[in-house]
Amino acid sequence: MPDVVCLGILVADVVAKPVDEYPQRGQLVLCNQIELHSGGCAANTGIGLARLRARVAVIGKVGADGFGDFVTDQLTSAGCDCAGIVRDAEVNTSGTMVLVHTDGERSFIHNVGANARLRRAELDMGIATSGRILHYAGHNLMPGFDGEPAAGVLRDAKAAGVTTSLDTAWDATGQWMSLIAPCLPHVDIMLPSFDEARMITGREEPAEVAQVLLDHGVGLVALKMGTEGCYLRSADQEIRLPIYRVDTVDATGAGDAFVAGFLRGVLEGWDLERTGRLANAVGALCCQGIGTTQGIRGWEETLAFMAEHA
Question: What is the pTM of this model?
Fold first, then answer.
């Protein structure tokens, strides 16, 4: 039985570094590295959790293509159960070109691909409700599943006694709260980026952003605030935690790594502050490698990092 089931977007990432200027039409610029990595919130968080010694199953959709083979192979190699991944021969696996700037900031060119075609009817609910936590990763990038269908899955998971978790992506359609609102009453833990949460709630301050989400039924809010660390809020606690300062190689996937650390702390039954510090540590370590998961270390190494930087 898995500890966490990660349901959501699965992506093949083509990462180029450094890219500080874009080529003019018909021209070329050079970079030092181009690599292929598995990506997407569900894959990144799943691999991060597996590396942190959690049992993980992943649910999503990929194409019947080389990128789909690559993503599922990477997940399997990391120790994730991929029995819930659907293959679709009529569409390509989702792909992202990740352009990493010298300072570690990233820009993206994304094709939604197979993620757009996942439907609730295709989900194995036996797998979805088999873990202690069901984490829905990448709301706003799965147009066939976001909103009401996702809300139904989260509701059924809660009814089965599963803790529910939700992470968001940027909503290029501009629907924001109107799209995600049906999910919120069924979410125990919400872990959006601060920028995404601001767009969802229409508020500017972390406390106000979190309060809107709590008022909509979310049990616990953990805002990922980049270089400002994280802001954690429940009905009776409010905590701000700074980042662990490291030499950033590539910030791609740091938010998903934060989520993996946070959920691992929940599995351990840690208090909110210690859980937030673990999440920050996993996010910081992620930034020390190229790609979404290369920098994430094992459980003992991560604990040692936290102790060293206490």
Answer: 0.93
